[in-house]
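Hi all, long-time lurker, first post. I run a small reading group and we've been trying to get comfortable going from sequence to structure in the token notation. Rather than ask abstract questions, I figured I'd post a concrete chain and ask someone more experienced to write out its structure so we can walk through it together at our next meeting. Sequence below, copied exactly:
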Amino acid sequence: MDHPHTHAHTLHRDAHHGGQPGVRHTAQPGRHQEHEPDDQAELLDLDAEVLAEHIASITAWLPLRTAPRRIVDLGCGTGAGTFALLDRFPDAHVIAVDTSAGHLQHLRKKACARGLEQRVRTAQADLDDPAWPALGSPDLVWASASMHHMADPERALRNVREALTPGGLFTVVELAGFPRFLPANAPEDRPGLEERLHAVTDRVTAEHMPHRGADWGPMLTASGFAIEGELTVTVNIEGSCSEAIGRYALGGLRRIRGAAASDLSADDLTALDRLLDTDSPHSILRRDDLAVRTERTVWAARRA
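-- Answer (accepted) --
Happy to help. Here is the structure in token form:
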């Protein structure tokens, strides 16, 4: 069988936008957390808003044989993928699964606000637990930026394969990394700061999440899936007039600071703190040269 491959599908648009879809950094399914900080939920929601067209393009691309009616969103976060799928498939119901009770509560509130509460069921679960929650027999399983959190992704892949209805589709969305926001020559006194920040956090991520950025194709095949399609999406969103992109950049760099501060030079840390100081004339919220640049890869697979 020939498999369609689409690469370098670029979304370049003005920053006046809305909507729910987006990729996200979900709570780690392998770790139980009693309370999620509000800023993480806010960052997930901003991610969804800013990257709305990105996720919509993926849901439109899916190589489906029929419109799914039973969908599972693994590692759903605050519901970016859940609501994108509900929008795309108006007859579908979604089981949204996450380890975070706070994220699931936030998702339920959003579902009620949109009149979708009858089409969404949430399930709190540690996806590294061998005993998964009852997911029924879904037509579509969606895992966006969540598979790389699994301590045993091969077991998770087997669990998905066993749950899928015959002919059902499994969609894995993987991150190339957290988005970049600043131009290479910024800030003026410490050009290249953002890349140095990512170099630090990438080292930490590689140690604790070795599957982030992985090529899931061979792992899917080894787990008994047949790849139906692969898509690479490049996102480049100009944000010069977007309040949401400014807040997204602020929240993202604050989280990176928390992970990278101890390994930064004093000069880089000072420059970063100026960007993060919302009262400073150097605040990232005052910049008119922000953009969102990132890349995602998507695999769509069926039980072989």
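A couple of things your group might point at:
The two ends are 12 Å apart (CA to CA).
The longest helix spans residues 243-260.
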